[in-house]
Amino acid sequence: MMKKACLLLAPPLLAVLALALAAQFWLRPAVEEQARHRLTALTSVDGSPVQARVEAIAFSPFTRRLALRGLEMRLVLPQGPVTCRIGEFSLRLSLRSLLACTALRDAALPENGMMVVAEKALLLNLSALTPQSRVNAQREEVESVRMDSALLRQLADGAPTSALGLFYGMGASGIRCSFISVDIPTVNRPVYIRLREASLRDWQGRSLKEATLADMQVRIDGQDVQRLDRLNLRDILLPKEDQLRRFAQLSAAPVPDETALQALTREILAANAPLFRELRLTGLTSALPQGNVALEHFDFDWLSNTPSRYRLTLSDLTVPMAALSDGRALPGLDALRLDADISVEGREQDTILEKGAVKAAELGDLRYSLLLSGPTEGMDLRQALFSQHYGDISLHFDDHGLMARLALSLAPDQRAAAVLGDGIDNFCAGNAPENTAIAAALKTFADRPGSLDINSAKGEFHTLPEVLGALQAGNPGLLFRVAARPGEESLAQQMARIRAGLAS
Question: Which neighbouring-strand residues pair with 319?
Answer without folding.
Answer: 336
